[in-house]
UniProtKB/TrEMBL annotation:
Domain of life: Bacteria
Domain HTH gntR-type: 9-77
Tagged with keyword Metal-binding: no
Organism: Nonomuraea guangzhouensis
Keyword Electron transport: no
Pfam families for the chain: GntR (PF00392)
InterPro entries documented for this protein: Bact_HTH_transcr_reg, Tscrpt_reg_HTH_GntR
Signal peptide annotation: none
Protein name: GntR family transcriptional regulator
Record key words, sorted: DNA-binding, Transcription, Transcription regulation
CDD domains linked: WHTH_GntR (cd07377)
Length: 84
């Protein structure tokens, strides 16, 4: 899955969707570190603020937790939103 610059979906939501799918597929498991903002900038060609917004969205949804000075990690399954 790649960022589609012609898709009307905001870029930060697309980046969040890519990471969310990695979590759902098991490529990233609970307590695994998600890509850093710098890695998202490099891998997806987005601005740092866009990467920050993607992490904030995932955190607000319950997919990830951020620990100051340590990074962002996949949250425990109990925190994940219910599929519906």
């Amino acid at each position: 899955m790649e960022v589609d610059r012609f898709d009307p979906t905001p870029i930060y939501q697309q980046v969040a969707a890519i990471i969310r799918e990695q979590i759902k597929a098991g490529a990233l498991g609970p307590r695994d570190r998600i890509p850093s903002e710098s890695e998202m900038v490099r891998d997806h060609g987005v601005a740092r603020d866009t990467a920050r917004q993607a992490v904030a969205l995932l955190r607000d949804e319950g997919w990830v937790m951020t620990l100051p000075q340590r990074g962002s990690f996949v949250a425990d399954r109990e925190s994940w939103p219910a599929e519906g």
